[in-house]
Amino acid sequence: MAAARAAREAARRSRKLFDIFVAEVPWTVSSKELKEYFSQFGSVQRCQLPFDKDTGFHKRYCWIKFSTPEDVQNVFQKDSHILEGAKLILKEQSHRRQGQRINQSN
Amino acid sequence: MYKLTETPVPYLIIHGVEGRNIMYQIRFLTVAPQQEGSVKEEPISEIQTRRTWQFDWALNKLDNSVRKTGRIRKTLLLKIFHEICKTGCPGSNQTLLLLRSCGTLLPEVLLPERTELAHMMWDKMKELGAVYDTSHYNALLKVYLQNEHKFSPTEFLARMEEANVQPNRVTYQRLIAAYCNEGDIEGASEILGFMKNKDLPITEAVFSSLVKGHARSGDVKSAENILSVMRMAGVEPGPDTYLSLLNVYAEKGDADSIKKTIEEVEKTEGYVMDRILMQVIFSLAKAGYPQYIEDIKERIRFEKELLPDAMNLCLTLVTHGFEDIGFHILKSLNPLSRGNVDHGNFFLQHCVNRDMPVNKLKQFCTELKEAEMHSAPLPFILRCALETNKSALAIDVMKIMKEEGLPLRPHYSWPLLVVFQKEKNLGGIFEVLKVMHELGVELDVETYTNYVFKNFADSETARAQLKKNDCLFETVGLSVAEIRYEAAHGRLNNVLDISLAERSQCSQVFTGVNSIMIVKANDNYFIQDLNASRTFRDFFFFFFFPPIDIHHFRNSLILGFKSSDDVSLWSKITELLYKDERYCLTPPGPTEAVGYFLYHLIDSMSDSEVQAKEERLRQYFHQLKKMNIVIPTSHYSGICRLLDPSQVPELIKDARLLPHKKSLTTDNIPESAKSDVSALEKKLEKRKAENQPITDVLKQLVHALCEEENMQKALEVKAKYEPDMVVGGYAALINLCCRHDNVEEAMNLKEKVFPKNSPVALDTGKYIALVEVLAKHGRLEDAINILTEMKEKDVPISDRTVASFFRILNAAAMRGEVETVHRLHETIVNLGLPETAVLHSPLITVHLEKDDMTAALEALMNCYKKYGKILQLHNIYCRLIEKGDADLLQKVSDFISSEYGDMMALYDLFFAFLQTGKYKEARKVIETPGLRAHTGRLHWFAKRCISSNQMETLEHLVELTQNLFECDRDEMYYFLLQLCESNGDWRKAEAVWTKIQEENVVPREKTLALLADILEKNGQVVPFDVPKVRHEDSSLTDSNVEERRIKILCRKNNAKEAYNIFLEMQGKKEFHHRSYDILIKALLMQNCLEEAIEVKHAAETHIKGFTLNSAASSLLIISQVRRDYLKDAMAVLKGILDSGVLPTRPAVTALIQALAEKGDLKNLQALKNMLEDITKLIGVSASLIANAIALAHTKNNDLDAAVEYLEPLLISGAQNPDQAVKNISYLLRKVSEEGLEPAFEKFGVMAERLASQFGIYRPVTDLFLQYVSADRVDDARSLIQRYGASIEKRDLVTFMARSASKPGQAKKIETLLELIPEHLDMEITYRYLMKCYELDGDVASVKAVYEKTKAKNIQLHELTLKSLAVFLKKVGEPVPFTEPPETFKFYVEQLRKRRFETS
What we know:
The complex is a heterodimer. Chain A is an alpha+beta fold. In chain A, 28% of the residues lie in helices and 24% in strands. Chain A contains three helices and five strands, in the order αβαββαββ. A five-stranded antiparallel sheet of chain A has the order 2-3-1-5-4. The longest helix of chain A is centred in the N-terminal third of the chain and has 13 residues. The C terminus of chain A is likely disordered. Chain B is mainly alpha-helical. Chain B has a two-stranded antiparallel ribbon with strand order 1-2. The N terminus of chain B is likely disordered.
């Protein structure tokens, strides 16, 4: 049961079809500011910035989806991303690369 | 003793030192104590698991907080207190932890409040049944002292007596401190009298208390005099004493004496005074002499490692109302700023918490900004105010922000709205809406949806109320929120009404065109033609279904579905989704889109929701089926996986209606047999008498005798039936002779049956046995010949072989045979082994044995140069220290510093001083400013002490690391107790217990349990409440001493002796599950398969359902494969899989390869089926299994079958990434190495066919690379002429990387360069080529390659240059470029990062 639940949880996480995971988002910005910022690299389709309904603060991370893979590449061309004085931590979501792993026999 | 922790000054160690050390145990405190005798078998509810999880999280946070900062937030502490109370009766160390935290770890809380907290917790936990022992009373005393709480020591003692708790040394010390705080020397003397009567040692702590006591009684002269008194008593004044004295002067405002004392101490003692000086600053502030602070402050070097302490000083000052002094200190920390990080957050936050007036806050903000310490202090203060629900302050700060032109955003209001919502304070909400409006912030749809409307029954009421209270501001956000809100509540009719009513309004706002509706949802504007759209279907068009990608409305739709029970409505909408192409604009089409939607719908439902709606969902699926709606199989399986934990089998069955169907297979597995000497003998004689062939039986008999270790008899049998002996029998005999040291016979047999020039080879283990016995008997040349033969016959070499080589080399080293070691080592290394550091260490050991330090050091450096490994360093250090050879010591230290950094060098030196008993020197090393705890290194040394039973050394390690930054104190004491346990030394264990209290460490449950165990086993009373141990297989539940001895012996690699104990105890005692695992694993490591199996049988008879753990069973499989007991190995594998344990990859790989070599298709197929679902988990590639099966066909001379099997797999593998049979490199390598040319050709043709007909290029790439590996350059060239363009770059890089991992492979890369330069990344290729030549030690080629890169203008990576520079220096060549300055590790990381970023 626990394992199945964990598997389900894992599936839940992995299915996010976003391009970029952004952490350490400063509390002062909302998804509007994030979209504005990332629009300089391409067309932002979605930006999901979850808020904690219990505190009214967001959770300091968000997901971004761009229209094309090139937009994503543009983002990662830049060494560091600073928004309102805070350095954002960016991670590319892995779904685009699936199925390209190298297979090796021993 | 240098100890900051045991001091009489209550506020003394506010900062860091003590705080950091304490609370690592917390993450172990999570067990809810079970009521014994009433253990019910109940599934843990989800809520409870969640709570436990949160509790864990809180404890970890607390742990981190203390370790990193030396403080705890009160809220966190209270949260943990409540959690502990909720779980029922708190455990002994839980109570200790909480009490312990009520002192200086709370610098943000006022002193009386802290004591109150401690008392509250004490009483509450007592009510819950907590049992208090001496450690708790001592902790409470400490809290009193830290909080300057006035109390009567005699009453305290009386209370202890009443509770029947014995005071100990620590209790008395703290009581003396309490008297001295009040200047009551008489009281202190009385306690001193007690201590003397009980013969307790008077430590520095007592004397420093007395310094203070005398001063506070008004007698500074006597206070000063204590220092000489203590010296006379043989106790050196330490930092505690000096701090006490300095505080005395601070309280008197005697700046001159402070200055004089500091200077004196600095001169004579050489302490780092910084932490002490910070205490003095606080004393000066409290005593009202702020004018002297600057002078002290200037003496402090605010280095990085001082930061937590300095921060705690600032906080304490603010708490006590000295915020300006605190701010002054804060500004001195500025030079520590790195980069453009904001500083002072902790300070501002604390000011907010202490309700500082807004003007003061504004002033701090301005100053921080001017000092460029903080980029945005005002928004930070706003956040603090919002977090602590200070709405008035938040609003004031927002006003200031507006004045200063800083942006204000809608979501700043949310935390305030949340609070008012919780309080059901509508007035508050209206107020916020008004203020935000006044501040010019237009609130958005989220604000209304999530934080405003929730307070009202429906949006209509909301609108009316807002209007009534003058805060109805007509905005787009408000309108859209109204629609959304009603939709989400399933009030579809309301939505329709509102949407129509809003229509005109919104249109006016935006376009003025009546037929166009503009809706803002998810921050996107959608324009929708609404002309005459009144039907249900159109409503969905309007609201949920704008003609855009499904994900924009998926969530709303799911929400709508979940709040509605109308199945036909669900189906209709789904049908719409499926059939109306407007909603599936994205390429995959409706099947995908609906599948995806269904998946998310199910995913959004909890287990209980699914169960509640099971019936409806089933109807829904049936209706979808009727509508001919089909979803992809992958989505279907995803849905089944989601449904699986919900326990809805019927629903899962119905879900099958949605996709196409699929089939599955299962298989079985064979079992093993056993041999028996006497039966075999009879059988043999009978056969002989009947004149039947005896070869097989004879072989079995010889094997059986070998297994029984009966050499005499085995040789007799051999002599008797010589003509019928087969190769296998001889091999077993040779091995047996080696084991019995019969070198002559072993060599005779070997020369006779397996001569050097014959193609027949022994297996690796037998060669090793021969080498070992030859080396042992001084037959060096013979041993080298055997090794050379191994190389010539290409005998496979595994990790085990390497371990055996080490054993052989080390044995020679221990005998001090320099030449033997060198020659054997050289021959062994030339066998082409994988990188193994351990093999080189005998090169150093041999010199240590001969006590030739210069040679040993030289060998150490040589090893580093040649193999990049530092070996035997600790032993060399120790020996040099013992000999007092300062020059060589300096040399080795410099060397390590330059290669690994100062920290490593310091640790090495520290351990060596400890090891050699030079504790004073060790202390100096470990107190080097800036040195941090390095867990790995500390563990290494502690474990070393335990396994070699060095109590004194270990004790000193524990003591000297007391003030080491981030040192896990509980763990250090746990090590001590472990050693006490091995020695059964309960007295020492008890002393450790007192030390733990003295240092104010809260032990983890594990530690307490171990301590209790030691005391109990030795018939002592346990003076505290024993925690219940969570892990049943922890070492504490060992049934007896023997079991522990077995474990210790196993840990020391003495499996044989452990086995002997096991045999003695067999039948008398049963062991614990884990002990069997450990013993079996240790036996297998020593190649004692039979013994291991014996133990396994015993375990299986004693423990029902016994299964070996993964590591042990994998080792077992590997051992069995090595001995060719493949059937047994299969049985073991099946057994562990059945019991849900996963084998390791090497075990599975070994078995697969062995079966393939044997051509055993049946078992391979069985194995494949067994592994079906778990190949990925184990990490065995699908390609390997497919290759192995093809190889098995080949071995059975059925090439057609091999191709027929493999080819379709490769074709489908190329199309389906999940079923990834892609490469054939293993197969090609095997057939090529074994010279199976027809097979190689056949697979080559297949590879080319796949390339030319199907466009699948991986196999042909493998073929090409195999040609390159086998140095068949012409074949490779001709292949590349046909398929050159299709070679995959990635495969080439992998190939080169693998080539560059062992010596002698440069040729391969050179060939690639020759054949396909246009396909190669030059930088990478030359990097690997260089590495190959470096591995070969080929200086000329290395230099030539470098010249070539220069000529071709190829930019080499720094790692390559670094490696090259090191190589050239090592061989004494000049380095023709600037060596990159950083360490290897740095560049490796850099490269890895770059690769990660670009991949």
